[in-house]
Amino acid sequence: MGTALIYDEEMTKYKLLWVDPACKIEVPERLTVSHGALVRNGLTDRCICLPVREAVDAEILLVHSEEYLEAVKQTPHMTLEDLKEFTLQYGDVYFHPNIYHCAKLAVGSALQLVDSVLMGKVKNGMALVRPPGHHSMRSAANGFCVFNNVAIAAQYAKQKYGVKRILIVDWDIHHGQGVQYCFEDDPSVLYFSWHRYEHQKFWPNLKDSDYDIVGKGEGAGFNINVPWNKVGMENSDYLSVFCHVLLPIAYEFCPDLVLVCAGFDSAIGDLEGEMCATPDIFAHLTYLLMNLAEGKLCAVLEGGYNLTSLAQSVCQTVQTLLGDPLPPLTNLTGPCRSTLESLQCVRAAHRQHWSCLRHAVDLPTFEISTIRIKSSGEENKDEAEVWEEQKSPEEKIWPEPPKRVSPRVCSAVVLPDGVVCPDACERLSSSEDLGPHLLTLKKDFLKDADDSAVTALSRVFSLIDKMKNNEIRNGLALVGDAAMTMTCVVQHVAAEVDSRVFLVCVGNGNIPGHIIEDGKTLVVQISGEDTEEQGSKYYVPVCLKKGCTDTSGFAQAMFSLLLPLGYQHNPSLVLLVRMPGSGVCDIMWQQLTALLQSFAQGHTLVLLQEDDKACVGPTASILLGNPAPPLGQLPASLKEDAEAVERLRSRLQADWNLLLATAPENG
Ligand code: X5A
Ligand code: ZN
Q: Ligand 1 atom 7: the closest Cα is on which residue?
């Protein structure tokens, strides 16, 4: 099953016909340049290109009023003067004789995408559309938007397919107030938006965009606003909001469908957003959502006005939907203070609605508004910030994201004879797959080991070599002694210059001290053993009361510990080990395996112990790029486990500041 791309040149056939500084950035080239970049990078050829269609009245009326639709219907027949006059009743939007036609195509594109994903014709997709949608309201055009493409798509999915829960992620730099208003009291649609806010000084200047607007009535908790109160936010800021707010809540919600208001004015170089996140961040944002809803993800273009940044960001998004390995993110320095304030406020505002936040520490609930006032004035801007603001964001330059090359082989396996696994995996079993390590191994490690163990280890080393040479993306080995193999692998890799290993060990078992102290290997062990007091910067033992069987505690450790640590360590190899009798359920294991693909360009080596044969299939499926099955709506985790994870975060955040989710006092 492939990735859909929906685009039609017709949607470039309207433009601003008079002078309006607020609207001059919304140009037809936004689409031609984005599509052109997809063509140039060979991505259109890899997508299933689907035709657009016009939405019909009944579909538009799922969200908009009859009066508004009738009014917009008149615009193709209006004179230039009439159009100008008509435009005046709305904010920051323009009309053109052909915009009604394009707006129907934009809605229709979103619906075509939802249809093809929900009918199982494709696994995911993106629609490149104009006009955008997320600002338009029941009876008003706004912010370049005529009809609310994504809101209509969500109502359509509910009505036509009976979809029970929909997550809308709005990563555009503006608040999609139109989407918020549409679903404010609806608990079946979880709306998440981050947006440039600057304490209400930034357009659309609404109180409704602040973190304390969480939804109404039945829908309380199902609206998440993350205000950016400073410009210049970086990759770290975006990732920390995903790790500490969106992902925990999204997994607890467990959507059946994910819709993305995919605006790219949140990327570097955009004059509207003035942010500094690079286009490759969208590869990661996209991927982090692809294991929700069994991978059913529909991205619909919203904003994005720097044509270079926009085109690169669109390519990153589509390439991720297609399943290519993720680009490494470097320079993750942790979130800035303003982000920490926002995180703290959002988490406090939502803690009564989501059990994943219930045990979060240090969240004042009544002093929040003072944080806002305290840090809002010009007076506490330092000189560097003032200078930074004078620089035009246009002057910002950034390197083009590096090419993301898929190795010829995705997954290679080392399995004992007779153990089956999917055909798509390449099996290492010939004598040449033994690699050059056999003799050294015999000499160094395994004097007393039996031949089959030496052979297996030698093949595991050869998996690592092939990953290093980018001949394979990932590897899976079923071995007689997972703990021993793990130790040998870490030593082998750490011997290389510039190598960094992220070792994730699930289940009980002793991790030898000498592999932790090398400063290259970061170890996270999730188990039921009480080993907490032995922790260090590079050894993070997560001890869960009921071991790995506690799904909610495990999930919390994944988002708030593993992901931030992995991103900040930026490993060249992920080593994922499943100790015998770990008690982790298959689905949790698959989710973990999937999320770890964010690192090391997908270079993951999974070690299973021989008696875990049944796990080969589920693991291989994830390594081959299939989405992990949903965990189900998560219950509250054990208080002790939530607290254990929080304690670890507190202990480690001085060394790993992507773990931070609260602002230090008097900063
Ligand atoms: C879709 C979108 C932005 C409108 C900005 C008006 N709209 N100042 O990005
Ligand atoms: Zn925008």
A: 143
